[in-house]
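Query structure, 652 tokens:
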């Protein structure tokens, strides 16, 4: 499935989720009314002249019950939504996870971090936060509202029991959830279903409060305790109905998305063996995928494996492991590998000499049955990488392939070790970004340096001086990767620290004599990668309604790659060949503020029009049949600002 098709399906599933939630609430209201009628029959049935059924069906009482159920569900959902505003990190911490120290000396943790960073750079998206859950089971999840607050969590059992290719298959599966909109859908599902579960939790609290109290057979106090006991039981019954409905909703939304994520992981890595072996390891693992965290059930639909016991049939959030393996290996004979020991064994000892080579070495070697996955879901590597044409570049959005992973690995290996280490440290990460965004003009750099002296922390200035030499020797095309590596550390800044950091970035742009499109694009990538888009709009507009911002963006891209005005005009005209509109070239260079405003408006484009704009951007950059590393970085950074993650080799 293509990137925008998967996003659109996730939006439709969100609408279906709301309908299912309304059905669940209606079921809970019906259960509540039934319980009230039964309670009245038991309490008032012995009194003459009373009709419990008539009283239970009284419109005022029925309306009060319905309003009460809806209010509790609504308030519970709102409360959970507010609790999860922190994004994926909030989920990871709720499950007992802790962030990996970016400069960890643990070989398993370092390998996981490398795989996640490699996959992020290959996909053209910011590196998510990486968490480890101290659980012996094999499991993982991706959570967050958007890529800028995404987190990937992996259990200790997984990083110890899986080799690199197996771990890469699991991580690619989770990246599919991020790229295809499942992550946002799952977070909404958590918040909405929590409201349904609240009623049962209230009933449980009432029953626990009554436990140990001496029942009074008669007197008004005894009747009050009986009422409290009955209310607790009633809420537990209604809550059970809500829990059942919630599990059914999770299963209805989650199961097919797991198949899509498996298929996409194979498409990304072109290594079905890695993911299949990971699933077999899970099936053979003594702890399975079961998580022991107290809130594990609430997030069960997020996991790589089912994570809980007892969910089967209609309530299963994941397809059976055997079915998932058979789709990856149609000829599988049902055999499972010997479980690997995971306690106290060095990581190197767990890597078997006959492990399958990495994904880059498997391009074109995978034997995948066309019956295992539909052709619309699982594409061949030939159609997903190396298209080599600006006309087809938009079709690669959100579709990384093995060549992109190989390129990302090559990029990471080519980075200066000191700069990589700086990206993983709190003060040095800020200094690294400042150094990357400082202009090449000597007079501008002098003004920018003075602006930082006046604004930045002394510790950051020390790091900036230390990094001056490796930054000066930095190879073209490495700026974007280093910024992506630094983003997780920048997201950990406090509100005051980030305010100071942002003020420094603004000072750098203000002190630049002629800020170029590349500087602006990287500057915007840093800000959006840390705090997300400033303005979110649910409006969907056509290019014909946004001619001016499209012209402003394309004119800036054309001018960035051209020395002469006439050449810039030619690049702009090449871009217009992909568009149904004919705006005029803007001779005046746009300011960073104007470009920010243009991108924020263009984010409202319908998917089809957004694809046309990306094609136009590619034609603009490729108009002279060559592309410099800086132009490729600029194109990928601008595309990501439009929520169009462009794989690593797309701009080749």
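Result returned for the query:
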């Amino acid at each position: 499935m293509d990137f925008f098709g998967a996003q659109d399906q996730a939006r439709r599933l969100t609408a279906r989720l709301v309908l299912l939630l309304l059905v669940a609430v209606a079921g809970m209201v019906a259960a509540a009314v039934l319980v009230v009628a039964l309670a009245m029959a038991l309490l008032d049935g012995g009194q003459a002249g009373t009709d419990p059924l008539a009283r239970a069906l009284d419109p005022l009482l029925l309306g009060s019950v319905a309003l009460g159920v809806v209010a509790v569900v609504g308030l519970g959902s709102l409360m959970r939504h507010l609790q999860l505003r922190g994004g994926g990190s909030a989920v990871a911490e709720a499950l007992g996870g802790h962030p990996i120290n970016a400069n960890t000396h643990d070989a398993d943790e370092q390998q996981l971090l490398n795989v996640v960073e490699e996959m992020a750079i290959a996909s053209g998206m910011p590196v998510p936060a990486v968490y480890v859950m101290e659980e012996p089971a094999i499991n993982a999840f991706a959570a967050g509202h958007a890529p800028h607050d995404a987190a990937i969590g992996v259990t200790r059992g997984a990083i110890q029991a899986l080799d690199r290719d197996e771990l890469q298959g699991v991580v690619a599966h989770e990246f599919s959830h991020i790229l295809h909109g499942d992550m946002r859908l799952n977070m909404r599902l958590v918040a909405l279903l929590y409201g349904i579960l609240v009623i049962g939790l209230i009933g449980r609290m009432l029953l626990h409060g009554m436990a140990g109290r001496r029942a009074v057979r008669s007197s008004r106090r005894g009747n009050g305790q009986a009422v409290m006991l009955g209310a607790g039981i009633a809420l537990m019954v209604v809550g059970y109905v809500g829990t059942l409905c919630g599990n059914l909703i999770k299963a209805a939304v989650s199961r097919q998305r797991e198949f899509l994520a498996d298929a996409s992981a194979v498409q990304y890595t072109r290594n079905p063996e890695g993911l299949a072996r990971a699933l077999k390891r899970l099936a053979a693992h003594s702890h399975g995928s079961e998580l022991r965290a107290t809130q594990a059930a609430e997030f069960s639909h997020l996991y790589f494996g089912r994570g809980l016991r007892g969910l089967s049939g209609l309530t299963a959030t994941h397809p059976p492991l055997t079915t998932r393996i058979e789709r990856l290996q149609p000829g599988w004979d049902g055999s499972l590998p010997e479980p690997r020991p995971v306690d106290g064994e060095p990581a190197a000892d767990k890597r078997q000499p006959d492990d399958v080579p990495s994904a880059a070495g498997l391009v074109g070697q995978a034997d995948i049955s066309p019956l295992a996955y539909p052709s619309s879901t699982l594409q061949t590597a030939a159609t997903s990488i190396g298209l080599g044409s600006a006309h087809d570049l938009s079709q690669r959005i959100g579709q990384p392939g093995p060549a992109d992973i190989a390129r990302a690995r090559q990029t990471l290996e080519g980075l200066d070790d000191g700069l990589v280490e700086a990206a993983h440290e709190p003060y040095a990460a800020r200094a690294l970004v400042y150094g990357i965004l400082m202009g090449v003009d000597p007079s501008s750099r002098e003004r920018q340096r003075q602006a930082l002296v006046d604004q930045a922390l002394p510790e950051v200035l020390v790091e900036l001086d230390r990094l001056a030499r490796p930054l000066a020797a930095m190879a073209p095309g490495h700026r974007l990767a280093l910024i992506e590596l630094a983003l997780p550390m920048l997201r950990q800044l406090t509100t005051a620290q980030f305010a100071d950091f942002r003020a420094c970035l603004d000072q750098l742009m203000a002190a630049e004599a002629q800020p170029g499109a590349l500087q602006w694009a990287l500057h915007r990538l840093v800000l959006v990668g840390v705090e997300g888009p400033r303005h979110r709009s649910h409006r969907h507009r056509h290019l014909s309604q946004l001619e001016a911002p499209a012209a402003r963006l394309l004119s800036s891209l054309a001018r960035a790659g051209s020395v002469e005005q006439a050449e810039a005009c030619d690049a702009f005209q090449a871009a217009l060949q992909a568009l149904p509109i004919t705006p005029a070239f803007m001779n005046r260079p746009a300011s960073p503020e104007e470009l920010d405003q243009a991108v924020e408006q263009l984010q409202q484009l319908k998917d089809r029009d957004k694809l046309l704009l990306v094609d136009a951007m590619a034609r603009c950059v490729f108009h002279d049949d060559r592309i410099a590393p800086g132009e490729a970085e600029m194109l990928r950074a601008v595309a990501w600002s439009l929520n169009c993650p462009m794989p690593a080799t797309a701009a080749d």
